[in-house]
Each structure stands twice: as structure tokens, then as C-alpha cells.
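Folded chain entry
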Amino acid sequence: MAPKPKILLLGAIDHQPSLSAYNALSPLATLTTTTATNPPDFLTECTRPNSPLSNTLIIYRTFASISTTGPINSTLAPALRALGVRAICHCGAGYDQIDVSACSAAGIHVSNAPTAVDAATADTALYLLLGALRGFHAPAVSLREGKWRGDPEPALGHDPEGKVLGILGMGGIGRNLKAKAEALGMRVLYHNRREVEGEEEGYRGFEELLREVDVLSLNLPLNASTHHIISTPQFEIMKDSVVIINTARGGVIDEAALVHALDSGKVWSVGLDVYEDEPKVHPGLTQTKMELWTIDNVRSMLETGRLKSRVPEQKDMAYD
């Protein structure tokens, strides 16, 4: 009798109902995991004679499992196929960690979860959109610092009603966001690889979209053709004081170009759920403004004898 095939779990299943559903597969297959903790060890485990992973038919993987396996590329895919792997089931909508061409060449099928988090991701994009438009972050920080109105007062925010939202990538998340943004009175345009049936009126060419919008939301997968799809030339096309929202993948935006656009005022504000080099964040998105502000304090004291933003405890302290 042939042994049962194996299912290899790469990463963790966090929620109990999902874990119960996974464990319910045990009558059909042997559920197994890897002992490797890094990509070299995982490749060794896959390729050594009499590997404990032999007879693996299906892999269930999470986004975080890349720290164990590395990207599934033209080196790893054939090794997985040699174990018997026929399918990789990726827990996520985006699958940029998997070289699909390499898997296809090795005879491995790849699946993702394309619509499971459409509504949740669109909710996050809308939250970031409202926060970035209204400038909620600055007064929240001021309040925590004990500055009721801010010192100096933050710039006034903008209402979403009447603004033009551009959606770059009109898949499930983009369509969900469109409906929610329209409820706020926004006019929605989009660019996609092809026009969406029933949404022809809002379709724009890529550069045409960039020129027209007040807010740009990125909702497209990361791949070779979309890496840094928004960079300096694209920012130059956009309106001054545009707002950028990214809930896709960090790499679709050139973060260095984004920081320059923020510093110059071309981009008024951003709402980011993802970063280009996670978990690292470009210092210009977290530190540069504070550094420049501090330098302004130094300059102000040198030139006027007064600080730009003195601490509130010293509000009654006289300057010499």
C-alpha cells in the first residue's frame, strides 16, 4: 500500500478555526513541518538523500515563511518538485515571494487567496486615506505631547467629498475601495491592465490617471513590471499636494523618490500600510522631518534668539 502523501506547513496558522480545518486534513495526508530555521538549511533538508520531506505533495505557506525558506525561485522549485511537490498553496493575495515561472517550469501549481481580504484591505486603505487627507496624525501627536492646538498649529486637512481618487489596480480590493470612497462623495477613476466590464467610464491611461487625481491608491501586485511603478517621473506628472495611499506592497513605490516628493511638497501626505524594505523603514519617512524641525530650531535661535517650538513648560519663561 502506498504511503499517504504529505502536506508541508511552512509558517504558522494563527486562528483556531483555521487550525482545526487544517488538522482535519490528517485522514487524507500526513501533516508535517520542517526543522530548518533558515534558507540554506531548508534547501539542504530538501535535497539530502532520504529527506524527511520526501513524498510531500502540497505545501501550505505563509508570507512570514520566507525567513525559513527564502523566495521560491529557480533553485528551490526543482528541489521541491523532486520531493514530490505538485502544489504550493500561498496564504495571501500577493505572491511576489514565489517565482511562478520557475514553479511552472518545475511542474508545480501555485494558488493564492485573492479575495479573502478584499474588504479588510479596502477598509485599511480608506482609513489611511481619511487620515492622510485630514492630517489626523499631526494633531494626535500634539495632543499626546500636551500641546492642545499644536505648536505650531498643524495645517488644515482636506475633505474627501469632491476629491478625485485614482485607483491603480482595479481588482477586488480596488472595486471594494471604489464603492466605499464613492459613499464619501469622491469621484473615482482607475487604471488597470484592461478595462473592467461595467466600469469603462472611469478608466484612464496610466499617465492620464496620474495627472487627474487628488489621491492615488496603489492596489496592484508586486512583480517585475510593477516594481517602482511610482517613482520620480511619475511624481512629476501628478498634481501638487497629491496624497498617496499604499496597501499593496512596499516595492511598488520608490521610497527614496517618495521622501523627496514629501520634502518638496509635491506629495502632501501619505498613508502607508507597507514599506519597501520591511521591517526597515526609510529614515525619511520617520526621522527626516523631525531632524529638519530640530535644525530649524537651531537656526531660529541663532537668527532670532527664539526657538521655533519651545516646550510648553517654558511658555512663560522670558528670553534673555
DSSP finds twelve helices and ten strands in the chain. The longest helix spans residues 118-134. The beta strands are 6-10, 30-33, 56-62, 87-91, 109-111, 164-168, 187-191, 215-218, 242-246, 267-272.
